[in-house]
């Protein structure tokens, strides 16, 4: 019944779509899944645009691309990133193709033509900007400590506490909507006994599905591909297609896909 983890595959190795994304749904007591549909040609098209224009600022209507949205960034120390395509059908029967980048793009949560994250960006920034300087200041005090005595330990404990608290506050800002028109927080949805990993909800699949559900679009195909310098372990190479991730996406995708196959 469970979906086996799927290794990333090169586009050319895929004669037909084979990757499915999904997860377990508590409510229906089964897995909900979504296949690639006809998204491979849109992936190829987007890769072509990256190569041709050297930017992800492709949809802002003719203005010169923002330098921070250049694809050069994906080939530097930050390394590559996942990009996603979701084909949807609207209430009028028209097909819409949605695009997403995972996480932030070089400091941007928002960019024209790309779906937004699962939280209100202003609220998110206000929350992090309130606490991050405190965490940084503690770091400086920790570095300034002579030896690893009681004060060093206490400061480290305080910093860990603050970081955890901030992460919980930030996770509290995420709102996940599914195809039953239900909305929930990460904490309410996440399946698993371990904590919610950093970056949960920031991958392409949840961003795309959330946007579709909120705009009454019915997804019919999902693909995620990697673009840029290969990752440290070498498992993700430029142009390879990957299924949704095991640790962050799988525990929330059952909820997010719920209602789609009704
Ligand atoms: Zn993921
Ligand atoms: Zn369900």
Q: What key attributes describe this structure?
A:
31% helix; alpha+beta; 262 residues; binds zinc ion
Q: Give the cofactors and ligands.
A: zinc ion
How are the strands ordered across the major sheet?
Answer: 1-9-8-4-5
Mind describing the biggest β-sheet? Answer: 5 strands, antiparallel
Number of domains: 1
Structural overview:
- It is a single chain.
- The protein has 262 residues and is an alpha+beta fold.
- The protein has one domain.
- Helices cover 31% and strands 17% of the residues.
- The chain is built from 6 helices and 9 strands, in the order βββαββααββααββα.
- The chain has a 5-stranded antiparallel beta sheet with strand order 1-9-8-4-5, sandwiched between helices. A two-stranded antiparallel sheet has the order 2-3. The chain has a two-stranded antiparallel sheet with strand order 6-7.
- Strand 6 and strand 7 form a beta hairpin.
- Helix 2 (121-144) runs antiparallel to helix 3.
- The chain is globular, with a radius of gyration of 20 Å.
- The mean pLDDT is 91.
- The structure holds zinc ion (2 copies).
- One zinc ion binds at residues 25, 27-28, 32, 258.
- One zinc ion is lined by residues 25, 27-28, 32, 258.
């Amino acid at each position: 019944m469970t979906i086996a983890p799927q290794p990333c595959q090169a586009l050319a190795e895929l004669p037909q779509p084979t990757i499915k994304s999904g997860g377990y749904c508590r409510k229906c007591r089964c897995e909900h899944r979504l296949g690639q549909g006809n998204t491979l040609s849109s992936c190829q098209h987007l890769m072509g645009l990256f190569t041709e224009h050297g930017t992800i600022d492709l949809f802002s209507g003719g203005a010169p691309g923002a330098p921070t949205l250049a694809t050069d960034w994906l080939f530097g120390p930050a390394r590559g990133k996942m990009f996603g395509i979701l084909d949807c059908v609207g209430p009028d029967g028209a097909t819409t193709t949605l695009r997403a980048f995972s996480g932030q793009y070089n400091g941007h949560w928002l960019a024209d033509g790309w779906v937004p994250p699962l939280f209100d960006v202003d609220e998110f920034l206000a929350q992090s900007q309130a606490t991050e300087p405190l965490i940084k200041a503690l770091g400086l005090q920790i570095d300034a400590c002579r030896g690893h005595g009681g004060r060093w330990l206490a400061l480290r404990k305080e910093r860990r506490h603050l970081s955890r608290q901030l992460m919980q506050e930030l996770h509290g800002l995420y709102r996940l909507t599914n195809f039953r028109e239900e909305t929930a927080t990460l904490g309410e949805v996440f399946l698993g006994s371990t904590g919610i990993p950093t970056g949960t909800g920031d991958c392409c699949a949840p961003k795309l599905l959330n946007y579709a559900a909120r705009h009454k679009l019915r997804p019919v195909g999902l693909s995620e591909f990697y673009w840029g310098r290969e990752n440290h372990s070498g498992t993700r190479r430029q142009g390879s297609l990957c299924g949704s991730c095991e640790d962050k996406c799988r525990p929330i995708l059952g909820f997010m896909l719920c209602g789609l196959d009704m």
